[in-house]
């Protein structure tokens, strides 16, 4: 795919959705961090259901520590791997209180040092909470990047590096959200909705679902 095509694709994404953001519901960077940890191998819809009552009570790492691991588990028991996630969140809150004055660090290395936080989670927090031009490659972004030809790669790291290099700079901050939403609702895994796709004529997928 050439540069002009990529430019057009992201111009269309921007025209359709000028201010994209995550579908996770949160009130501050700490709540976003918790929501993203919970969202691993879970849907945003499921996470939002579980965190609605939790986030009314808990707005800081200290409040989460006061709630305790058992209390947290009661709120998130509908989410997959909730035992491991609860343990990681409590450990993370201890580190945030002890090492970061209860604040979420705006730093990749510090974020990735937190239990339950990998590169993808760090990228989401840096992008969504702090406005960094990072891209967290999940299954949706990996599929869209490869299928459309925007930034093909064999693994998530390769796709992330190519996206950061190939997406025009003016779109980098929002590219993460546009690509996820496109993969979640239009360029879906089994049968993409090519007929209603805003970039169908620019996409380089060979097996377009157009009747």
Structure, explained:
The chain folds into two domains: 3-19 and 135-196, Endonuclease Iii, domain 2 (Orthogonal Bundle); 29-128, Hypothetical protein, domain 2 (Endonuclease III, domain 1). It is mainly alpha-helical. It contains ten helices and no strands. The protein has helices at 3-16, 29-39, 44-57, 61-76, 82-100, 108-112, 119-128, 139-148, 156-166, 172-185. The model has no long low-confidence stretch (mean pLDDT 95).
**Gross CATH architecture of the largest domain:** Orthogonal Bundle
Residue stretches low in confidence (pLDDT < 50, at least 5 long) are none
Count of alpha/pi helices: 10
Structural class: mainly alpha
Distance between the termini: 24 Å
Give a concise summary.
With 211 residues, the protein is mainly alpha-helical. It has helices at 3-16, 29-39, 44-57, 61-76, 82-100, 108-112, 119-128, 139-148, 156-166, 172-185.
Chain-wise SSE layout:
Elements: H1 3-16, H2 29-39, H3 44-57, H4 61-76, H5 82-100, H6 108-112, H7 119-128, H8 139-148, H9 156-166, H10 172-185
Helix pairs in contact: 2-3, 2-7, 3-4, 4-5, 8-10
Core attributes:
single chain, 211 residues, mainly alpha, Endonuclease Iii, domain 2, 10 helices
């Amino acid at each position: 795919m050439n540069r002009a095509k990529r430019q057009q694709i992201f111009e269309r994404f921007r025209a359709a959705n000028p201010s994209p953001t995550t579908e996770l519901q949160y009130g501050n960077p700490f709540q976003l961090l918790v929501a993203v940890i919970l969202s691993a191998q879970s849907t945003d819809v499921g996470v939002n259901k579980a965190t609605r009552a939790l986030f009314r009570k808990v707005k800081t790492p200290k409040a989460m520590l006061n709630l305790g691991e058992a209390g947290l588990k009661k709120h998130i028991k509908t989410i997959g791997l909730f035992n491991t996630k609860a343990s990681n969140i409590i450990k993370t809150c201890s580190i945030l209180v002890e090492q970061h004055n209860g604040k979420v660090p705006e730093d990749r290395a510090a974020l990735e040092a937190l239990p339950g936080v990998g590169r993808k989670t760090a990228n989401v927090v840096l992008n969504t909470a702090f406005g960094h031009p990072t891209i967290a490659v999940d299954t949706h972004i990996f599929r869209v990047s490869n299928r459309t030809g925007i930034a093909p790669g064999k693994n998530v790291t390769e796709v992330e590096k190519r996206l950061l290099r190939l997406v025009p700079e003016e779109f980098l901050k929002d590219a993460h959200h546009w690509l996820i939403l496109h993969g979640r609702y239009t360029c879906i895994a089994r049968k993409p909705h090519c007929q209603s796709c805003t970039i169908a004529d620019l996409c380089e997928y060979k097996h377009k679902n157009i009747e």
